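Fill in residues.
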């Protein structure tokens, strides 16, 4: 998967999203881990990482900006939808 982020958009959007397809996704530097791209909510100095509802993951919280920093917002994603082996024509 290839993704593109916009560092100029390193602030969490305050306007509420109305559905799954308009949820903003951010790259987050968690200091002790690799950078992840996640849906985030900021309440004062508490940053909540919100997983997709079907992932069954718990919401995680971090002290912002001490434990986590917003690197940028994901603006584009390109990914393979089919495994190359499945693309082979079966005769």
């Amino acid at each position: 998967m290839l993704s593109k982020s916009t560092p100029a958009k390193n602030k969490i959007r305050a306007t509420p999203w109305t559905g799954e397809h308009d949820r903003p996704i951010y790259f987050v530097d968690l200091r002790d881990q690799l950078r992840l791209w996640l849906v985030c909510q900021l309440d004062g100095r508490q940053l909540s990482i919100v997983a997709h509802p079907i992932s069954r993951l718990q919401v995680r919280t971090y002290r912002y900006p001490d434990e986590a920093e917003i690197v940028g917002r994901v603006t584009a994603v390109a990914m393979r939808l089919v495994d190359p082996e499945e693309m082979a024509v079966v005769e």
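The chain has one helix and six strands.
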